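Contributing new complexes? Match this layout with magnesium ion.
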Amino acid sequence: ALGYHRVLNENRNLYNMVQDLKGNIRVYCRIRPVFGSERNSVIDFVGKDGSLVILDPVKPPKDGRKNFHFNRVFGPTAAQDEVFKDIQPLIRSVMDGYNVCIFAYGQTGSGKTYTMTGTSSGSTKDMGINYLALNDLFELSNERKDVTNYEIQVQMVEIYNEQVRDLLVNDSSTTKYPSIFNIRSTGETGLNLPDAKMHTVKSTDDVLNLMKLGEENRVVSFTAMNNRSSRSHSVLSVHVHGKDISGSNLRSCLHLVDLAGSERVDKSEVTGDRLREAQYINKSLSSLGDVITALAQKSAHVPYRNSKLTLLLQDSLGGRAKTLMFAHVSPEGDSYSETISTLKFAQRVSTVELGAARANKESSEIMQLKEQVENLKKALASKE
Ligand code: ADP
Ligand code: MG
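Output block (do not edit by hand):
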C-alpha cells in the first residue's frame, strides 16, 4: 500500500504542478442564451482560445467591435456538465490540500445562480457547480478511501449590507432572520466563520437537503425585503479534512460564491435603503476586484480588509490558493452597457493578455508534465 501511496502522491503532485502552470487566477466568461422576447444577440464571435468579440447594437459592425480575451469563454449552448468538466481538476485539487475560490460575477439575470446552483426545478440535468463539486469530492473521497480518510463539512452564509448571516440554520421561527455574526480567525483550524453552523455531509442527498434549507432561508429574506437575493452575496464553504495512512493531515477549503448583481443603479433615482444596498454592493465588488488585481500583479499589499467578502475569503485568495471567476453576461442588446462593464471588470482582474505571448512556453511545459503524469498513471495501473 505504501508503494501505491507513493506513486499516487507523485501523480497528484505532478497533476497539481500542471494546474499551477495554468496560473492561480483564472477568468472564464459565460454567456447565457437569448430568451424569447429579447432582441438580437450582441455576441459576434466566441473562440475556443478564450477570445470574445462583442458588437455594439447601435453602431455599424465595423466600428462597434470590441475584443476581449479570457482563459475560456462558454457560449449560450454550453451545458452545465461541459462547464463542470473544465473546472473539475481545480475542484479536485481541494482534496490535495489546495484552497480554491470560485465566484460568479455579473448583472442580475445573467446566469450566476444558474452556474452555481442550477435551476430551481431541481432536475439533476441542470445542477450547478455547488452540487456537482460536492458530488465529485465524494467520488474522489471514495476512490481514495484506502489511502486517505476524508471528512467533508459545509457552511453557507449570505452577506447583505456588510452583515453575515447563516443560511443553514433550522430555525422553526422562520419569520426571524438568522443571526448576524462576525468573521474572525480561529487560527488553529483556519475557519473564518466559527459561529456559522458546520454540517458534516456524507452523500449528495445530505447536500441536496442543505441546499434546500439554504434556498428556503434565502426566500424568507426575499419576501421580507423584496428580492434581496440579487443584492446579497451567498457563500457556500466546503471544508475538507483528510487523514493519510502515512499519518499526514490536510485541511483545505472550497468557497463557492454567487455574488450580488453587479448592475449599476441610477444614483438620481435611488434613495434610502436601495441606495445603501447599492453602495455596499459597489464597495464589496470593487474590493474583490482590487484584491484579485493586487494578487495578479503580485503586489506587496493585498487589501483584504476592505470588505466582509474579501475578509471571509482571505484564506482562499492568494498564496497557494486558486481563484476562478466566472464573468456572466446576457447577450441581448438591452444589456449591452452592463455586458461591457462586466467584461471590462473581468479583463481587469484577468492575467490573460490580449494575444497572450507566454502561452506557448507554458503549453510546452504542460505537455511535458502531462506526459509524465501519463507515465505515472501507467505505473499506478500496473500496481493495482
Ligand atoms: P442571476 O443569478 O445572475 O440573476 P439566473 O441564474 O437567475 O441569473 O438566470 C436568469 C434566468 O436565465 C434563469 O431563469 C436561468 O435559469 C436562466 N439561465 C441562465 N443561464 C442559463 C444557461 N446557461 N442556460 C439556460 N438557462 C439559463
Ligand atoms: Mg441569482
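Reviewers usually confirm one structural detail per submission. For this one: Residues 112-113, 230, 258 surround magnesium ion (ligand 2) (CB under 6 Å).
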